[in-house]
Amino acid sequence: MIPHSVAKRPIQLTPAGWIFIFYTIGVGAGAINTGNNLLYLIFGVFLGLILASGVLSDLSLWRLKIELVLPEEAEAGQPCYLTVRATNHKKKLASVGITLELKGRLRGQPLDLKLFIPTVLPQETTVFQIVFTPSSRGAYEIESATLNTRYPFGLLQKKWRSIAIDTNADSPKKAFLVTPALFPLYSGELERFGLEEEETEAAPLRGDGATLYGLREFRQSDNPKRIHWKASAKRFDASSDDWAHWLVKEMEKDQDSPLAILWPPQAAFEGWAEERREAFISYVASVIWSFDQKGRGAALALPKGAGYRTLGQKALWPFLSLFDFEAPAQNEVLFNSLSEDNELSYPVLSSETLLKQFDEWRKGREKPHG
Amino acid sequence: MAKAAAQPMPLASVLGNAVRFLALIGAGAMALSRECDNLILVVFAVLFTIGFFLERHTSAVKLMGLLQPFFAVFIFCIAIADFLYLSNSFLLAIAHFLLSLQGLRLLALQTHRESMGSILLSSMMLLSASTLSVEWTFLVMLLVFLPVIIWTLTVHNISLEWGRALAVRPETEKQAPLPAVQDPVWLKLKPLLRGCAGLAFLVTVTCCAAVFLAFPRFNFRGFKGQYLQPVHKSGFTNQVNLYKSGKIFEDKTVAMRVEIAPEDRPRWTGYLRGGTLDQFNGRIWTHSSLAAKSVYAQKGGVVELVSRSLDQKKLLHQTVYLESMDSPILFAAPYPVRFKVNRPFLEVRSDGSVLRGHGDTWRFHYEVDSVPVKVREGQPRTQSPSPSIRGSDAVHTLALQITQGARTNSEKAQRICDYLRFNYTYSLHLQASSPQKSPIEAFLFEHKRGQCEYFASAMTLLLTKLGIPARMVTGFLSHEWSQRGHYYIVRMKNAHAWVEVNVDKKGWVAFDPSPREVETGAVQSVWRREILEFMDHLNLRWNRYILSYDIERQSEILKTISRTSFQISANLTQWTNWMSEAISPFKRDRGMPQKGNTSKDLWNYGLGAMGTAFLGIFAFWFFNRRKSSKNRIWFYKEVVRYLEKNDGKKKKRTAQTLKEFRQSLNRNYEGKAAVLEYLEREYYRLRFDPKALPSSEIQRAIAHSLKQLKK
C-alpha cells in the first residue's frame, strides 16, 4: 500500500522534459566543441536540475498512502463526491504537487477524473474530495487509478499505480452505481397511482417494518441482531459488565402495502428515441422514489407464469441504472440475477397504465409554463 | 481534458513575479559581461518596467499578446542588421536579440506557456552571458540564478497542475483561483516549497560541481564557425595602421595576466614580445610571409624552441592567462625558449614569434620560460641635429645626420633611439595631418609627437634608410604588479611597439625609442587600488581555477586522488597488521610490538579508539532511532509508573487497561485529572487506531502533558 520500491514508480519524460533534455544535450555539445568551461558549468546545472527533479518527485511519492472511498451510489445530473484520504508516512518531508488520475467508464463512455493534492504534511492524513457530475445513469467503473507527480519542475512524471480503493468497506469494489436522474412529481401525478399528496399521516405503531421507531434497553427475549451498536457503545462503561446497558432498535409497523409496477415488454420500447427512453427510466425511478419517500415503497415486477418475479428495494436501483434498451438478453440476465419469485399480494400497476401516464407526464413537462 | 489556454492560472502573480525576477537576473548576467550595448540594456529596462505596471491591466496585456509576434519579427530583423552592420559578432547579436525579445515577452505574461517561454529565454540569456563573460561575476550571477530558476520552475509546475485539476471540475464547482496572498493552501504550501527548493539547490550545485570537475574536457573544436569567435571591442591585430591606431591605448580591459615568482621581479623588464612587422607602405605596417614551422609538443605539452640545453636558473618562468584576442600570437618576455601548452603544436616563425593554430583566438593559458634580455632604451645626449630638414629624401638625410660619427650599426641604432626618445614627445592626442603626407614624415618634421607606434616606425624607417636591417615589434609593456596575487596585470592600453635591429655579430637587438611613462597603478588612492587589486585577483583565480580548468588539471586531480587513496589504504593495511599483532597473545608473549614505534603505536591506538567510539555512537543512534520510530506509545509506561507511585500500594495487573487501573485506584487527581484523561485518550487512539499518526505536534503535546503530570 505504501510505495517503497523505486522500481515500481516508473519515470516518464514530459514534453517540457524532452525539450529540456535536448536543450541540455545542446549545451553539452557546445561545451565539448568550444571547451568553454562556463558552458560546462551551465551543463552541470541543467543536469543537476534533471537529477533534482527525479529525486524530489520520488521523495514526494515515497511512503505516501492513498485511499479512495467510493460513494454508495450517485444520481445522474447531481454532483457526486469521491473521498480521497492521503496519508504521508514520511517523518520530515511533505508530499507536494501530486495528481490523482482515475480512468473510468460510465455506460461504456470514458470518464476520467482528476484531483490535485497540493500538499500532505509529514505524519499527517489529509482528506480531499473529487467532485464530478455524472451525465447519465449506469455503473461508473474505475479501470485504473494512478498517482502521479510532475513536481518539482514538470520535467519528469513519476507514476504510482497501487492505490487502495474502498479497503475499509466490507466488500471492496471498484465501481458504483449512478442512478437515473430523479424529477419531482406533482400531487396530481402521484394521485394517478393512488397515492394522495395530502394524505394525513397516522401515528406510527411499533412493528416489524423497515423504518426505525426508536431505541430501548435490551431485554432477555430480544433478538441480538437488533442491538444498536453505535448507541450502545456511547453508553458503554468499562467498569461494569452489566449487559442491560445494550440498546436495541424498535421498528415501525408498515401501514401501506407497496405498489408493484409491471415493467413493459421490450416491444413497447421499439422505435423510441434515446432521449425518450432515458426519460422513461427517469420517470419510473422518480415514481418509485416518490413512493419510497411516502413510506409505501414500490417494486418492479415481470410476469412469470401465473405469478411474478419482482425486484425489491435493493435490486430496483441497480436494475434501473444498468437497464440497456439495446440488449434485451442482457436485461433478462440482469433481471433474473436480481429478482425473486413472488406471489404479489399488493396492487400491480400495469405496464400500459405506466406508459400512458409517462406520456402524459412528458406532455405536461413539454408544455410551456404559464 | 481542457486545453492549456483554457486552464485557469492559480498563483498567477507569484509566477509572474518569479519569471520577471529570473529575467532580470539573466539580463544582469549579460550586463556584467560588459559586452552588451548600453542602448539594448536600457530598452530591456524600459520594457521590464512597463511590463511590471501593465500586469494589472488585463486588456492591455491581451493587446500586447496579439501584437507580440509582429514585434518579435521586427526585433529579429534588427538583430540581423546588428550582426551584419553594427556589432559584427554573431554571439553579441544573439545576446542583443535575446535581451530585446525577453523584454517584449515580459509585456504579456498571460498563460503558462508564455511563462515557460520566458523561463527558457532567461536560461538562454545566461547561456549567452557565458559566451561573453570572462569575469568572476558570472559565478555570482549563476549562483543567484540557480535558486531563482528552481523556485520559478516549481511555482510554474504547481500552478500548471493546479490549473489542470481545476479545469476538469464540473461547471458548478468551478471557481476562479484565489490570489496567492488569500489562498490558505498556498500559504501552507509556500514554506514547504521553499524547503524543497533548498534541497533541489543543494542537489543541483553538487551535480554541477561534479560535472564540472569530472566531465572530460575534450575540446573537439569540430565546429569552428567564424561567427562563434569570441567577442571583444578592441584587439591586438597583426598589423599597425598609423591612421587608425590610438584607440587601443584607451582600453582598460585586461589583455592578460602574467604570474611570476616574486623573487624574479628584478629580472622583469615589463616587455612582452608578440610578433614583428617588417613591411611598410607608408601608412600600414604588416609582416612579410615568413617561413613558419610547426613544433610539436612533447610529453606534458612542452614545446622546445631551442635545441641546446639552458641553465634553468637563468630562465624567467611565467604563467600567462591570455584573454581572447584577434591575433593567435602568444606573448612572452623576450626571448622565449620553452612553452608549455595544451595544444598539440605551435607555429614558430623565423622572426621568433610564436602562434597558435589559425583562428584559435580564445582565452588561453600557458606557461613559458624566457631568457630575459634587456631592451635598450635611450640616454640623453647634448648634441641634437637640426630639425629643419625638408625635401623628398628628408628622412634619409635626417638618418645620416643623426648617425654622423657612429661607426657600428649598434652605435647608429643607439643614436637614433636616443634622438627620438629625447627630442620627441609621447602623446596619444595626435594632430591631424594631410592625407597626402606620410604620417612618419609628419611625425618627424612637423608635429614631433605621437604614440609608440610612430616612434618605432620612425626608428625602423631611419635605420632602413641607412641600410641597417630593422623591424617593428609589437607586444605589451606593463609594470602593474598585483601585490595580492603576485602577478602582472597587462591591459589593452599597455600595448606597445618597439624596434629590433640586426646588429653586427649580436643578431637582433631590441631598442625602445618611445619616451613612454610606464604606469604602475601607484597614482590611484590606496583603498581604490586595494579594491581593484582584490577584484582583479578574484578574476585571476576565476581564470586559473575555472576558465583554465582543462584535461591536464583533471588528470592531476585523478592522480592526486589515486595517490591519496593509495596512501590511506597503505596506512590502513599497516594499522590492521599492527592490530592483528597487538591482539595476538602468541606475539604479545614474544614481546611485540618492538621498541621505537611508540608514537606510531599511540597514533594507531588513537585511531582504533576513535573508530570503536564512532561505531558505538552510530549503533546507539541507529537502534535508538529504530525504537523511537516504532514506539508510538512511549509515554504509556511513564503514566502507569506515575499512577503506581502516586498510590504507593497498588500495582497494575497485566490484564488491566490503563483506564481500569486508574478507576480502580479511586483517587482524586485534582488539577491533573484532565491531563491524565488526555494522555489516556491519546494512548487509546495511538494504540488502537491504525490510521492515527503520531504527528510531531501531538508528540510535543504529549511530552508537555507528561511534564505537567510529573510536576
Helix-strand layout with pairing:
The complex is a heterodimer of chains A (370) and B (711).
Chain A: E1 11-13, H1 15-34, H2 37-61, E2 64-69, E3 73-75, E4 80-88, E5 95-106, E6 109-120, E7 124-132, E8 138-149, E9 156-160, E10 164-165, E11 175-179, H3 187-191, E12 206-217, H4 229-234, E13 247-252, E14 259-262, H5 274-293, E15 298-304, E16 307-311, H6 313-322, H7 328-338, E17 340-342, E18 348-349, H8 351-366
Parallel strand pairs in A: 2-10, 3-11, 14-15, 14-18
Antiparallel strand pairs in A: 1-9, 2-4, 4-7, 5-6, 5-8, 8-9, 8-11, 12-13, 15-16, 16-17
Chain B: H1 12-32, H2 38-54, H3 58-86, H4 90-105, H5 112-132, H6 137-167, H7 184-214, E1 240-241, E2 254-259, E3 271-277, E4 279-280, E5 284-286, E6 292-296, E7 302-304, E8 316-322, E9 329-330, E10 336-340, E11 345-349, E12 354-355, E13 364-370, E14 376-377, H8 394-402, H9 409-423, E15 425-426, H10 439-447, E16 449-450, H11 452-465, E17 470-477, E18 480-482, E19 487-491, E20 495-503, E21 507-512, H12 526-547, H13 551-583, H14 585-589, H15 598-630, H16 636-647, H17 658-665, H18 673-688, H19 696-710
Parallel strand pairs in B: 14-21, 15-16
Antiparallel strand pairs in B: 1-5, 2-8, 2-19, 3-17, 4-5, 6-11, 7-10, 8-13, 9-12, 10-13, 11-12, 17-20, 18-19, 20-21
Helix pairs in contact in B: 1-2, 1-5, 1-6, 2-4, 3-4, 4-5, 5-6, 6-7, 8-11, 9-11, 18-19
